[in-house]
Specification:
There is one protein chain. By secondary structure, the chain is of the alpha/beta class. It has one domain: Metallo-dependent phosphatases (Purple Acid Phosphatase, chain A, domain 2). Strands 1-5-6-9-11-10 form a six-stranded mixed β-sheet. The protein has a five-stranded mixed β-sheet with strand order 4-3-2-12-13. A two-stranded antiparallel ribbon has the order 7-8. Helix 3 crosses helix 5. The two termini are 29 Å apart.
């Protein structure tokens, strides 16, 4: 759904950064959270759970299973959006890690491909553009401007999926990004905004915005943030699965 979701969560909840096909790290981090904070801790993902890693479809199937059990939800993200467009037969450039996911999918028997395509497309239709929790926390894949919270449009969606970009491209082909958190004017009523997309070595906190993509797929670690108690949890990457030299 190209809409946002409002949730009231009385129990504990954790927001997990981009896993990019790091299935074992994602599973380990979620189980660590459930062991430490209770099995009813709700999990929210900032998206990008596929591409670049070695276990993209395992990771996606795991997310769908948790979603169907009512224990998990993820927001829309640019990598998932691109894979869905590929599944629908649209013309997309298979690069920046998407090739790994496509190869996994194409290696499956045709009958399994058809069932999985239907399953993934159905799941995608249920994912919100962004999530507002308890009116004080917003989860959006690449971030969101304060004035756009509670709104949807093509312009809002573009920012939520891709963040702030200059329109120029770096030598490795990636778009040049801007730190949108520097523009936030915050006060006591301003919500926390938790996002991924932009890779940091450690969680990046600025103006009540929390960047939690800590490059697990690049060999660093997978990060979770628990907004209610202002705590982070981490799982170290088991190896480096991808480098930005790969396209």
């Amino acid at each position: 759904m190209d809409n946002f979701l409002k949730l009231n969560i009385e129990k504990q909840f954790a927001v997990i950064g981009d896993s990019h096909g790091c299935y074992y790290e994602l599973k380990e981090l979620i189980e660590k959270i459930w062991d430490k904070y209770g099995k009813d801790t709700f999990i929210i993902s900032v998206g990008d759970n596929i591409d670049r890693g070695d276990y993209n479809l395992d990771t996606l199937n795991y997310c769908i299973e948790l979603f169907e059990r009512g224990k998990f939800v993820e927001v829309q993200s640019n990598h998932m959006d691109k894979f869905v467009r590929w599944l629908k037969g649209n013309k997309v450039k298979v690069s920046f890690g998407l090739q790994k996911t496509v190869n996994e999918f194409n290696s499956l028997p045709k009958s399994i491909q058809d069932k999985l395509r239907e399953k993934i497309l159905s799941y995608w239709e249920k994912l919100p553009l962004y999530i507002i929790v308890n009116n004080n926390t917003v989860i959006a894949h690449a971030g969101i401007k304060d004035e756009d919270i509670g709104k949807t449009s093509k312009k809002v969606r573009k920012f939520v999926l891709y963040g702030a970009v200059t329109g120029r491209y770096l030598e490795n082909g990636f778009p040049e990004r801007l730190d949108w958190t520097k523009w936030r004017k915050v006060n006591e009523q301003s919500p926390k905004i938790i996002y991924g997309h932009q890779v940091f070595e450690e969680p990046y906190i600025n103006n009540k915005a929390y960047g939690i993509d800590t490059g697990c797929v690049l060999g660093n670690k997978l990060t979770a943030y628990l907004p209610k108690i202002d705590k982070f949890e981490f799982v170290k990457a088991k190896k480096q699965y991808y480098s930005f030299e790969e396209k």
